[in-house]
Design brief:
With 254 residues, the protein is α/β, with parallel strands linked by helices. It folds into two domains: 53 residues; 191 residues, SGNH hydrolase (Rossmann fold), CATH 3.40.50.1110. It is 53% helix and 9% strand. It has eleven helices and five strands.
């Protein structure tokens, strides 16, 4: 086969693969919009699908991971510490060290991470630290990227299996997906994912599930606006104070 034919065959395979991925996402976006009675143009569907496809690439946050590795070279992380990792709700926890004192902590939350991103970088920002415990918050971005609760749970199971294999002495504490103003349209999917994690934790002594769902609701059962910054997605100092009161006792139980 000539080089030109080989190139054309490769181009067709890649193009068809990408086309199918984008097409599937477009169908999911349209279904989600219909479910929530939201009108969305074909152009917006296409643009959103392309973004979600790009966002879901495993190495999407490689630059952020490289920055962590440079920090580790400049200053070795503490030993016998608690690793906090996951998405932006961990990354923005600026008061983490003070909130979790006297425990040594290391914050390795990054970007708008999905669990697949954390899995991909496990050997770079999880395994090397050999933490005595890991506090993990991730999954809401996965659902926003239109993965099903089952798919997200499968990704979490992979993370958990890597922890058990590579860090058998490490306890894993999972903060359940939080209710948020910006993503009320995902409430059912978020609850389903939380239930799967909770059920898994009930069967495994090395896994602890911390529910923040009900404590973050108003008496009317809605996400409490006083716990969020303006975007309605990320939490403020009051929100982190609540999380501290829910998570820290689990560290003390270790």
């Amino acid at each position: 086969m000539s080089k030109m034919k080989t190139f054309l065959l490769f181009f067709i395979i890649v193009t068809v693969g990408c086309s199918n991925s984008i097409s599937d996402l477009e169908k999911k976006i349209k279904a989600q919009a219909d479910k929530n009675n939201v009108e969305i143009s074909l152009a917006e569907i296409k643009k959103t699908a392309i973004y979600l496809d790009t966002w879901s690439k495993e190495d999407f946050y490689q630059d952020a991971i490289n920055e962590f590795k440079e920090l580790d070279k400049a200053s070795a992380p503490p030993t016998d510490m608690v690793l906090f990792t996951g998405s932006s709700s961990i990354r923005f926890w600026k008061s983490l060290k003070e909130d979790m004192a006297p425990y040594n902590t290391l914050n390795r939350g990054f970007g708008g991470a999905q669990i697949a991103h954390v899995n991909y970088h496990f050997n770079e920002i999880v395994k090397p630290y050999k933490p005595k415990a890991i506090v993990f918050f991730c999954g809401t971005n996965d659902l926003a990227a239109l993965k099903s609760p089952g798919e997200v749970f499968s990704d979490f199971n992979l993370f958990y299996s890597m922890v058990k294999k590579e860090l058998p002495e490490t306890r894993l504490i999972v903060i359940g997906v939080k209710p948020s103003i910006a993503r009320e349209y995902l409430i059912q999917e978020e609850k389903e994912f939380n239930k799967l994690i909770n059920n898994l934790a009930a069967k495994n002594a090395s896994l602890t599930y911390v529910s923040v769902w009900d404590p973050m609701l108003t008496t009317e059962g809605k996400p409490d606006p006083s716990l969020f910054v303006e975007d309605g997605l990320h939490i403020n100092a009051k929100g982190y104070d609540l999380w501290t009161r829910l998570v820290k006792p689990e560290l003390e139980n270790l």
